[in-house]
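Case study.
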Amino acid sequence: MTLEIGLIHYLVLGAILFALGIIGVVTRRNAVGVLISIEIILNAANLNLIAFAKHAAKGLALPGLQGSAGLDGQVFAIFIILLAACEAALALAIIITIFNRFGSIEVDYANTMSG
Amino acid sequence: MTAAPQSIMPLLTQMTFIVPELMLAVAIVVVIACDMFLPREKSWQCGWVALAGLGIAAMDAVYLWNVTSGRMLGGPARLFWGMVSADNFAMFFKLMFLAGAGVTILLSLRSAELTRMRSGEYYALLLTATMASCFMASSSNMLMLYLALETLSLPSYVLAGYRKSDRQAAEASLKYILFGAVSSGVMLYGLSLLYGLAGSLDYAAITRIATVNYPVFIVTMIFLIAGFGFKMSAAPFHFWAPDVYEGAPTPITAYLSVVSKMAGFAAIMRLLAPYFSMTTIAPYFDAARGMLGRQFDLTSIFWLLAVLTMTLGNFTALRQTNIKRLLAYSSIAHAGYMLTAFVAHNKDAFSAVMFYLIIYFIMNFGMFAAVTFIYNRTGSFQISDWRGLFYRSPIVVVCMGILLVSLIGLPPTAGFVGKWKLFVAVVEEGQRSASPWFFYSLVLIALANSVVSLYYYVGIIKQMCFYEPGEKLANFRFNTTQKLAMLCFAAPIIALQINWQPLSRFVERGMGAARQAVIMIIPMTTHQNQTLRAAEKTHGPQAFDIRHTGDHPC
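After joint prediction, the assembly is written out as follows.
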């Protein structure tokens, strides 16, 4: 029996990735680890967008909301990849500054302000 | 590409509506170029170049303000295939952002925190953030919204940590980028679901989901509110705010607390305008146990968000000793007050938010200007170091007193008018509603919160007036420019209490055009409703359920 891979599979995978990302953000103490988790969240959204662009957009598009709705999701995904790269570059630069000031990239060390 | 009414204007004509942003883009390049030719100790002069760019952009925004509120709107209000809106609502916020960036640059030029630093990039980044907030206020497509939000966030992260030799600044920057990236990621996940469910990235599309499957709509909106809540610093997405406000240079703190927050409010107001103008939403939980005799819906979420934000902000502010942290919590509390308007979600409430934002703009920039000036001479952000300031400079302390009373929201100031308008809008919605206590309780909580805030704001006044000047204020005095600046902030606060009609009319004009944009969406929405009804007749109520579309052959 062949298993047909439909939209729902992509969405479930996206949801799992999203949950893993959130768990990573909450539990990781290393700033780079948090950054990786954030990238996973972004990729969960990417996966959703692409899956929807392929499967759902055509099925859902109603008169008045038509057009090249299918392409929107893919375009969005490309923009996200771009912005994720920008964000990663920036975050790494900031992490280097943190290392210079605190001698560690554990987020717990860089926690002098509170209250 | 989208649901927007297709524009018949040629592209070049459409470009004229984003000239303020284009001007800022040019100014960014010019500032960077100037920075290359100026030696390090003179690079602060880039600030004046940036200011000139802002001035030109603002002049054009004023011109467009008149264009978009005139008959010109006979043409479609949305440009570039529905990506951005050109209406008075957008222009209103663009004017505020440009003014806010101008004040920030003037403060930066006067701030001792930024001297001896290479500052060309600083102003270029500030202009980039401003350009992005302008786009955020006018975006009417989720892709545009996300791009604008990120373009606003990325320079903000750098600016927060601009004093990079400082430990606190580095920490502020790290916290800001981690919180920001997570919340924008969560929002993005919500956007991706919204896109799939609606089949379009257009704002108008969200009403489709609300009419078909309300619970799913609520879930996606919760994801989205994470992103906006971060920008608005609404609890529980506010954790970054106090630390970033403390570590960032004071002018940037002011910028984040005013312009960045306003951008968040502008974007969410535009995003939700089509939803709030809907008359029907899908019947959802059959036995929904709501709050205070009301079904659980999006307004209930805003109720919780508003109450949590203002209570947390005010009560945590009580034990702050650092003025920047105190103002951070105060700005969180004010976000809470403004969120009450989303519970009322009528036209009056939205105009009240815009009205309040203008007053908030003056109050907060005024307070942060005072903080900058005092830091320049004392090198301290501790409120206890402000002791006896009154005996050094009565005029400035009176101005600060006016600003603080306005932040509390007491009568002889504009802060009272702003809060009055906000709460009246909520109460009036309650009178029309079947469950009035849902609205009344919110106003009561907000009033109780205002009383709490009295304590810490008056505490500052007490420190300034009822103690002998401390050693840090031994030779302290404000110069004439600083006194004039403080008077410029305090005078409108009193003047607007005496006569707020001009400002009200300004806000009404901004709101009026926004309503027109909403009206443009309504025919489409009713059309969608009809289509949906027809589809439901043939396919049954599950016609647009997500599982159904999953099986759709492709």
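Observations recorded in class. The beta strands of chain B are 78-79, 84-85. The first helix of chain B runs from residue 11 to 15. We will return to this complex in the next lecture.
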